[in-house]
Amino acid sequence: MPRRLTRSSRWAAVAAIVLALVLVERAANAASTSAMVLEGVVALLAMLGGVKMWVHNCFESHLVVVLAVAATSIGTLLSLTLGMPGNGPTELSATHVVTLLLSVTVGLLLVLDAHERRTEH
Fold it and tell me: Residue 1: inside a domain, yes or no?
């Protein structure tokens, strides 16, 4: 069911779409085919969720974007701390920083969106 579009929901949608573009870049430079497929699928989910959020700002779009952000941020943190299977931890790069910043930004914007919609009544 569509909800009222807010400034926060629009910015969260934009951030999710930018995150999807960053994930496409990461998928293109992935070390393995499985990492490429995983990042490509999460990028697709973030893109579709971001577009749906821009248009309808519905529960479903929030759910898809939150799942994409969670998968991205958890995967990035695991890669930085434990490393990919068979490899050691990866070094922090600009792509990692941008990915984590976008993930936090989307989360904060969704919280602000919920607050804006709650205080309108």
Answer: no
